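Page 47, continued from p. 46.
Same chain as before, 170 aa.
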Amino acid sequence: MTKEPEKKKRRKVLIPIIISVLCLALVASGVTIGYLLKERQEQSKPPVYGVDGKPVDGPVEKNRGTISAPGYEMLELKANTAAQGFALANPVQNNCYMKISLILEDGTVLWTSRPTAPGEATDEVVLSPTLPEGRYDGATILYACFRDKACTQELNSVVINLYLLSKTNN
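Result:
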């Protein structure tokens, strides 16, 4: 009969140990999964763009009271083609959303972006209407700036004067 109380004593000691080991295993698994998910998320982040329209690595100081916009002397476009194969960016230094438009000298709006957050690029530029081959002087890129993503709180805008060169790709 002395074996029964010994088994009960062992169970009383072993059960908390087993539960503790299982809890530690669960915590370790959770930490590992969290780390792997964070690493995957970091790898899948889109690039962040600076004032020159190029991807930026590392921290960037935010603008205070100013707005930065990439400047261009010329944009080369594909003649008679809607999808242009490039995007424009809102520099990461900004503290505002941008709606970016490409406009001809006569006021024809060729394209306008969705609201684009600081450091993000627009969707691909898709022209409507398309342009026949030629040089288009007096065009502008309008960076309309907003405090909010819904574009209800307008800030200053930036206008970049440039020319468009629409070429047939051979």
